[in-house]
Structure formats: C-alpha cells, structure tokens
Design goal:
- With 196 residues, the protein is an alpha+beta fold.
- It is 32% helix and 21% strand.
- The protein is built from six helices and eleven strands.
- The strands form four sheets. It has a four-stranded mixed beta sheet with strand order 1-4-10-11. A three-stranded antiparallel beta sheet has the order 3-8-5, with no helix packed on it. The protein has a two-stranded antiparallel ribbon with strand order 2-9.
- It is elongated and about 70 Å long.
C-alpha cells in the first residue's frame, strides 16, 4: 500500500454552495447514473471525469481551499477496477502538439500540459481519469458517497429517511402500518467522510 495511490476514483459535484452540490449528488444517486460532458475536453468528446487522488490528500486540499476549489467535497466513488472494466482510463498529460499525434480513438484522454508556457498549464494535480460515454449507470453496490464530515453524512441519511416516509405515507390509505414498516429500507449507499 502506498499513500500516494488510491484504489478508487471519485467524481465530485460542483455548486455555488455545499447545499447545491449535495442536492446535485442526491439527484445523481436518484437517477443511478452520471452523464458525460464535454467541458474542458478537447475535441468535444463526451466523457465522465474522475480523480484518483487519495482521500487524505483530497481532505487537505478541500480544507485549505486549494486546487480542488472549483469542486465541492461531495461525490461518488468507484473502484478503479470497476471503472477500468468499463473503459475508464487515466488521462494523458501532454502538449497540444502531441494531441495531433494521438490516434483519433484515444484523443478523449488528452489533457493539455505545458509547464513552460506563460502562464504554465498544469492540471496534473487533478490526477484525472476519464470514461468516454454518454452516461455511466451504476447501482448502490458499485458506488460510495463521499461527503465532507459526519454531520453531512447524517444529513444525507435524514434526507433518505424523510423521502422514504413521504413515499410510504402515500400508501398508508391502502396498506397496514406493519406492512409499511417492513417496506422501510436503510440507506443503500456506503458513505465515506473526507474528514475521517
């Protein structure tokens, strides 16, 4: 085991506030899929993007409002093996001139890297992986939620329980109370806190 290597990759959500990013995360979970996008991807290839940075490094970076400042500390985490089996790969950090030399079928992996330019262009801190796709479906068994701390973890559980109660109450006119209790399910996602 190495502290600079992770067995997982994380797709973080964005938002103007933590609450907005969390609601985006909950929408992703409700839909059971991540949608591919073309933002900052040369060639307009549609991809889902991830970081392979280890959790302790991410926690430090978010706490210091460092490099990951354009993201919020909420996301979905998958094993690298799972993503690799679906075609996910690390990006290739290189010059734009090198992009032209790549086979077309691999260009979706290109990320511009030009440390000698003014200003320097260096996104290597993202330790990015990508999967070229329109969407990436997943089940609760394949994903873990990433939240900043136990308080946010409890908030997610409370939202899940509240939504279940609303749904079950809609059946209360036709189902017995004991049957409704049997239909209650614990939150199906494993949760990981950046602070732990």
């Amino acid at each position: 085991m190495r502290p600079d290597i992770s067995d997982s990759v994380i797709h973080f959500t964005k938002g103007a506030t933590s609450e907005e990013a969390l609601w985006r995360l909950l929408d992703i979970l409700q839909g059971g899929r991540l949608l591919g996008g073309t933002g900052m991807i040369r060639g307009d290839f549609r991809c889902v993007c991830f970081t392979e940075a280890p959790l302790p490094a991410l926690a430090e970076d978010f706490a210091a409002a460092g490099s990951f400042a354009r993201y919020q500390p909420f996301g979905v985490m998958f094993s690298k093996r799972w993503l690799f089996a679906r075609g996910g790969r690390p990006v290739v950090y290189q010059t734009d001139a090198d992009y032209e030399q790549m086979p077309i079928e691999l260009r979706w992996r290109h990320v511009r890297y030009e440390p000698d330019s003014v200003p320097p262009i260096d996104f290597t801190w993202e330790r990015e992986w990508r999967l070229q796709c329109e969407e990436l479906p997943f089940t609760p068994a394949e994903v873990a939620l990433v939240v900043p701390d136990p308080e946010w973890q409890q908030f997610v559980v409370n939202v899940w329980n509240s939504q279940q109660q609303v749904e079950l109450e809609s059946y209360s006119a036709v189902l017995d109370h004991l049957v409704l209790q049997q239909l209650e399910e614990p939150i199906p996602w494993r949760t990981v806190c950046l602070s732990e």
